[in-house]
Design a protein that fits this description.
3-stranded parallel β-sheet, 3 helices, elongated
């Protein structure tokens, strides 16, 4: 087989649809736009969401209140019980938690928040963006320190 012998499968290629090329093309004169009207004009047509003058859907539906989701702080939450896997006296920060596999997300969004679920038996120095009161209490009871960054 040679390159000049290759051809497309029958039906795979359609001939170009040439608009406004005379009556012989089968699509001359108005070029498939019909006679007169908004869509026949150059630049004609309506904007997205326009419903012919009927009140559009986006204006018919109620819009109430304020949603904080766009502005909310997104912490990666880690329980105190999960920190018990680390060695005694270690300093834990976002980088060390990520290297150990405790944090699996690609990005540390707005930081790390330590939650108070579980028990801690080892003395650890934990550096995070936020702590719950119970988490801070458990870390300090175990002899460690909780430092907010």
């Amino acid at each position: 087989m040679k390159i000049n012998e290759l051809s497309a499968t029958p039906g795979a290629r359609q001939t170009a649809y040439r608009k406004g090329r005379g009556p012989g093309s089968g699509n001359g004169k108005t070029a498939g736009r019909g006679h007169k009207g908004q869509n026949s004009r150059s630049g004609g047509g309506v904007r997205p969401g326009f419903e012919g003058g009927q009140m559009p859907l986006y204006r018919r539906l109620p819009k109430r209140g304020f949603n904080n989701k766009r502005f909310a702080v997104q912490y990666i939450e880690i329980n105190v019980g999960d920190l018990d896997r680390f060695d005694e006296g270690m300093t834990l920060d976002a980088l060390s938690m990520k290297q150990s596999g405790l944090i699996t997300l690609p990005k540390v969004n707005d930081g790390i928040k330590i939650l108070g679920n579980g028990e801690l038996t080892k003395k650890l120095h934990v550096r995070a963006n936020a702590f719950t009161a119970s988490a801070k209490d458990k870390i300090e009871k175990a002899g460690g320190t909780a430092e907010e960054v």
